[in-house]
Description:
- The protein is an alpha+beta fold.
- Helix content is about 45%, strand content about 20%.
- The strands form two sheets. Strands 3, 4, 5, 6, 7, 8 and 9 form a seven-stranded mixed sheet that branches. Strands 1-2 form a two-stranded antiparallel ribbon.
- Strand 3, helix 5 and strand 4 form a beta-alpha-beta unit.
- The longest helix has 25 residues, at about 60-85.
- The mean pLDDT is about 85.
Amino acid sequence: MGISLRQLRYFLALVETGHFGHAADRVHVTQPALSMQIRELEAALGAVLVERMPRGIALTPAGREAEQRARRIIAEITELSATARRGGLAGRLNLGIIPTVAPYLLPAALPDLRAADITRDLRLHEAPTDRLLGELAGGRLDAVVIATPAPDDAVEAPLLCDRFLLAGSPARLAGLADPLPRPDGLDPDQLLLLDEGHCLGDQALAVCGLSRGVSRLDLGAASLSTLCRLAGQGMGLTFLPELAAAQELAAAPGLAARRFATPQPARELRLVRRASTDPAGWFDDLAARLASAGQRLCDGADAAIGG
């Protein structure tokens, strides 16, 4: 008995949802039909892959091994399909971008991308880093823009160094002891940070030498724009990337910003693809155009902060 791609897709749906009924809904079949395909897959492999639990499933050691191999197989099949449909920059390109970059970089880069190839079908997906890397590994995205190092099995192209500014109300900033503050000298109780799962919040804590357990004003904000508006109202201080400075300083009433002392803290933005993806005709060009747009935004930060 052979193994089918349908069985592998059903198995991965079961792994990701942890429940036969939810997996069946995801792949649009009945639960008995999905259960039958899983049993046939187990029979073909000669191993039990999942333990049926009262409230879901648990993977056996064989199931964990099968999951890793199934993901690689599906990714390769997806890549084969993508290569066939995409000639150079023409055709569909699925690009993922983290939320603290997408609202700023995309409006700046899209006109150039459209002018370079008006036939390109660019599909954009905004999500946190972990989710983007999962979808990249699974073949649902062709490339992602992130601010953390690429996984070992991926290839990255550096885009730009996005330095952090310190943002808050003029009164909050005037109350700082040093006109060029150091991150590790900030009062953690004044810091406004993004929810866990957003790399910008973790990076801000890292450059301050802090962790998620420190006492601070934590309002559970899910977007950089929300943090900037709260900071502008005097609720605290936040880290504002240069990339976002012009847009957020113009949009958030009462928000001001200043630079940190040298060496200024920063994040490194990069475009990442799977190592197995054929980069010919699109990857380097996309990276260059995103980098150019991002650098223009960063270069305008001094004008936005007034110095």
